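Annotated sample (chain length 535).
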Amino acid sequence: MNRKTLVLAAAMGLLAPVLAACGDTDSGSGDGDAIVVGTTDRFTASEEDGLAPLDPAFAYDVGTWNILRQTVQTLMVQPRGDGEPVPDAAESCGFTDAGNQRYSCKLRDGLKFSNGDAITAADVKFSIDRALAIKSDSGVFALLSTIDTVETQGESEVIFHLKAADATFPYKLSTPVAGIVNPDDYEKNKLREGFDIGGSGPYTLDAEVEDNEIVRAVFTKNPSYKGALEVNNDKVELVSFESSESMGEALEKGDIQVMTRSMSPEQIKKLGNAAGGEIELVESPGLEIRYLAFNTEAETVEDKAVRQAMAQIIDRGELVGKVYGSQAEPLFSLVPAGVTGHNNAFFNKYGDPSLAKARRLLEKAGVTTPVKLTLHYTTDHYGPATKVEFEQLSKQLNDSGLFETDIEGIPWKKFSPDGRKGKYDVYGMGWFPDYPDADAFISPFLDEDNFLNSPYSNSEIRKDLIPQSRRQADRLSASDSFTEIQDIVADDVPVLPLWQGKQYIATRDGVTGTAYALNSSSTLQLWELGRGVSG
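Output written by the structure step:
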């Protein structure tokens, strides 16, 4: 049989994993043998910047969130299929008023942290208040920004009073920043250093650290876990590799059983075309996007005509075709296709690439050409094709004669904080949504306290359109607000969307549950993995 499994999209505009080939959704039974999973994500604690990579009040990238989702429990959790979140640490949750501003949760009976301490409503309040008080420069606290106060009633009820209606609030309670932490282990106003985690999730963590970096994360099934997730194994080890090539070699040798992000386009193509053998490629729709971010106060790009000219020149189809092939598709908005509220705002405004239109934009604004720019990218976070992608972007801009660009690659541990500090005029970023809703592609970029720390601000978006969209419990009814926001972004170009990608897992025979091991937001769901005979 062809060893490529497709996980197709469900209806209703949201991407849900539904197996369409080999019947490998059987849960399998945990047999005590660790399932070893490879990743190229790096988990580094920087003494210089005082980073606390695994503190829920700080962590805000897909790699660290994938560790936290295994270990730190939240009131709500994303279910199989990416539908609306369901209670996890909570027994029940819901809005208790007509205006979607009072949200109440009742905790499950018998909840315990992994060290045996009982969990109470006061611990939930402490965890949420702590993230808001620390207000870390990663910007993750902004996910909780609609909270006004947190109230407890007795030992088991938590009531969130919101500043304004927020129909997306249940989703936000399913993200790691809302994770419940033990007050005995976490200080109220200070981030936790190192790699220790105290939670009540489906696993406990034992981190093997070398040179201030996790090289192997050992997840052991937490016997005290009470929640909505079914854990299909006793132990999973997550191993961090320096390159996709070394990760692929480990899979071929059997040193690991599962390979996750990030694989190279060449690896994906090779595995997808292979027939028979012991390794299977699982392909599923994804909501990952890539884009250029701008420091709109930087002298080189502060004139929006420069940013508009770049939007007019860049040929997304050519870029995707030369670098990623069928593994990605051009993206013309912050909100990707497959999410309710998406439109093709950039194509509607700029149409096909046009040198003549770009030249007129710059001439009308009085911009001297060629515009000299450095395009910055990270060397070790989004996969090995990133450099090739930026070489193509630079070539397209330079071939126009209107730009003179070069590229510079920086390791993620420096790239990420420097980007937030405004040290780059133009830089490439990826985004994995916090939850499968258009709001997760809008607010983190454009609202106050956005994670990019962008100087760009549009009062209509922040004061009117985002609040309007959050008042709509029926997310389809929010589409008009999202359309207006996307049109404004296409005109102002504070960010320039490039493409959205599919996602892949490669696995050896005998590992089950791979169809659900990643959800559309690239959340790694290690509890889904098991051992058995796949179909």
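Annotation: The mean pLDDT is 90.
Annotation: The two ends are 11 Å apart (CA to CA).
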